[in-house]
Amino acid sequence: MTQAELRLCSLLLQEHFGEIVEKVGNSLLRTGPRPLRLLVGDTGLLPDQVKKALCVLIQHNLVHYEVQPRGSVEYEARSERILRILRYPRYIYTAKTLYGDPGELLVEELLLHGHLPMSCAVARVADRLTETMEDGKTMDYTEVSSTFVRLADTHFIQRCPIVPETPQSAKSLPPPAPALAIAEKDMYVVPRLSLVGKGKRRHSCDEEEEQEHKAKRQKKEGGSSETPPDDGIYWQVNLERFHQHFRDQALVSAVASRMDQTSSEVVRTMLRMSEVTTASGASHTQPLSSNEIFRSLPAGYNIGKQVLDQYLALLADDPLEFVGKSGDSGGGTYTVSILCGELGIPRPETLPSSGFGSRCARIFRLLLRKKHLEQKQVEDFAMIPAKEAKDMLYRMLSENLVSLQEIPKTPDHAPSRTFYLYTVNVMAAARMLLHRCYKSVANLMERRQHEMRENKRLLEKSQRVEAILASMQATGAEAAQLHEVEEMITGPERQQLENLKRNVNKIDASENQVDETIFVLESFIESTMKR
Amino acid sequence: GRGRGRGRGQMTFNVEAVGIGKGDALPPPTLQPSPLFPALERRAAPLPGGEEGEYMLALKQELRRAMRGLPYFIKPGAPRRDIERYSDKYQLSSPVDNAIDWNPDWRRLPRELKIRVRRLRKGRTAPLVPKQHAALDKEETIKKLESLEKKEEEVTSEEEEEKEEEEEGKEEEEEEYDEEEHEEETDYILSYFDNGESFGPDSDDNGDEAVY
């Protein structure tokens, strides 16, 4: 793990779970898997605090445990999973675009709590949706349930591994930690529940006390006196599936920008058909016959069968190889190549341009295409004056975006008789850029926290004023009184708050943006390593 | 290759091949670490705006705010003060003690991690129901015993006891109220008390405001 990754994980844990969890997570990340007592000693925290922190981390799948042969339990932090916290907004937004508000809230609840039983998730989401509805209306559980089932069917959520059934008459002591496991085929099976009910509103002053207390009781943590029907069956978000969706989206938009809207629709259809049949690490989808594709095209597209065949042929012939022809049965079978190579390369291409200028990008693309070039050739092909070309090459060299390859002419490798060729080592460049991205996000987060700390006093004051205003409005104060309270925050202070808000928003948006790049680079590196 | 030290500024390879011609001025040697905030040569590209970006931004901030309020966010204990103050007993924010604020499924966790579950405090914003005296003898004794410990708030045994009560068919209001009763053994409503020393996110009940 690089320092940059460690620092970023640390910041993410601290921001979302507090300092105690951060300390524990840090210790695990830096020194590797260890048992509880070593962890307590290392962090200097109280044993109960460490236990709490571990419970939280395990609940959220950020740490997993393993029983060692000697009987002790070792805990290990999962750094790549911690980094995913950055992407939570993207997952939730995607769920919203695909499945609307119930989908969005279901994914959000599952992310916030790590894992939940279906009954619990559905109840919570129904309550939240009810809050937003008009007075008197409530959200029925069935709608939320059906969205839940759809999410499970398309693999966006999956079941957590379950506790193994232990025989009642276990002769030996129960193990120090359960060995959770789940079969692949069970992962998306939704238990047959009949969840009946409607969402409950949080109490308002008008509601009767009795109803209020009923609602409160329902909301208590684990408050129901009977065990829910799906006890022990927990669900979590399947991040890999979301990643697959993002990749598909990127592919479709790449096709659209390279060809046209219709061909991107064709590719989108093909991808949709193979959503659940493609294994998560596969490089190609399953072959699809053009007849099947024709049948599955969205209703609005009235292209004839022959036109479709033409499009498929065009896509297959394209040098970027988005689509490959894999056979002739059923009118020709085609697969979509999911390799991110095609996507990864355009992205690193644009990065030099943002840091170095468009001419550097030109040189970079040139080197990618031609693989190895001499200094002189670079100048000629890129049509850039020698002096500038030299300067750019050295800068990129110093940043490790390009590297020098020596080709000796003579066995003694004499420098005067050796070719020196510039080349791009794509993997190294990608890794270097990824490292930079982690650093950037960590810096952004620190800056944002700094801004908040600097203005803490002012923020607290404004919160107090808001609270006072709210309570005054609730008790029906006059406009003049409200105005007086508002005046407590002076003009310049308001300005300062505005600035703060603008800056924090900008920083947050940048973090989201960098995370997109992180996703592309990580996928690229991962898929290239698998080849 | 050539011997060391002979001929200043000579490299082991033919510099012309790399493009540094004879007599070209090389950049001056660096004598100090690079500046902390180097001048930007070109401005960064503007952030993509649009509905998607705005929505994700709002989501991100909302998530941050929400996670701070969940029991998974473990707040460090209140710092020990120099002298014990009377108000310590009635502080809203609970110091870290050996109890956990949510109810994990202990079957899924290693046994060594199991600690006491503290019942989550809900209904802070509830308008309080006027007192109703009921026969809570059993509870009161236990309550008194427990209140002897300074940091004691709620224990699982209490929870069980309350469940029993429910089954016995006692009135619902009591349960809601028991929360308040057990905590403070005074007639004063705890949520109205504010010693002004800690005014932070804890006491901000107005959860609708965005925290930046």
Automatic annotation (TrEMBL), chain A:
Domain of life of the organism encoding this protein: Eukaryota
GO MF term list: single-stranded DNA binding
Compartments (UniProt record): Nucleus
Region annotation (Disordered) ranges: 199-232
Alphabetically ordered keywords of this record: DNA-directed RNA polymerase, Nucleus, Transcription
Pfam families recorded: HTH_9, RNA_pol_Rpc82, RPC3_helical, WHD_POLR3C
BP terms from Gene Ontology: DNA-templated transcription
InterPro entries referenced in this protein's UniProt entry, alphabetically: POLR3C_WHD, RNA_pol_III_RPC82-rel_HTH, RNA_pol_III_Rpc82_C, RPC3, WH-like_DNA-bd_sf
Residue intervals of the DNA-directed RNA polymerase III subunit RPC3 winged-helix domain: 355-424
Principal location: nucleus
Gene3D superfamilies assigned to the protein according to its UniProt record, in alphabetical order: 6.10.140.1450, Winged helix-like DNA-binding domain superfamily/Winged helix DNA-binding domain
Domain RNA polymerase III subunit RPC82-related helix-turn-helix: residue ranges: 8-65
RNA polymerase III Rpc82 C -terminal domain residues: 146-336
Gene Ontology CC annotation, any one: RNA polymerase III complex
Subunit structure: Component of the RNA polymerase III (Pol III) complex consisting of 17 subunits.
Family that this chain belongs to: Belongs to the eukaryotic RPC3/POLR3C RNA polymerase subunit family.
Function: DNA-dependent RNA polymerase catalyzes the transcription of DNA into RNA using the four ribonucleoside triphosphates as substrates. Specific core component of RNA polymerase III which synthesizes small RNAs, such as 5S rRNA and tRNAs.
PANTHER family membership: DNA-DIRECTED RNA POLYMERASE III SUBUNIT RPC3, RNA POLYMERASE III DNA DIRECTED -RELATED
Protein name, entry field: DNA-directed RNA polymerase III subunit RPC3
Organism, scientific name: Bombycilla garrulus
The encoding gene: Polr3c
Automatic annotation (TrEMBL), chain B:
Keywords: Nucleus
Subcellular location, record wording: Nucleus
Biased composition (Acidic residues): 155-187, 202-212
Keyword Nucleus attributed: yes
GO biological process, one term: transcription by RNA polymerase III
Residue ranges, compositional bias (Basic and acidic residues): 134-154
One GO term describing the cellular component: RNA polymerase III complex
Region (Disordered): 126-212
Pfam families per record: RNA_pol_3_Rpc31
Keyword rRNA processing among UniProt keywords: no
Family: Belongs to the eukaryotic RPC7 RNA polymerase subunit family.
Protein name stated in the entry: RPC7L polymerase
Lineage: Eukaryota, Metazoa, Chordata, Craniata, Vertebrata
Name of the gene encoding the protein in the UniProt record: Polr3gl
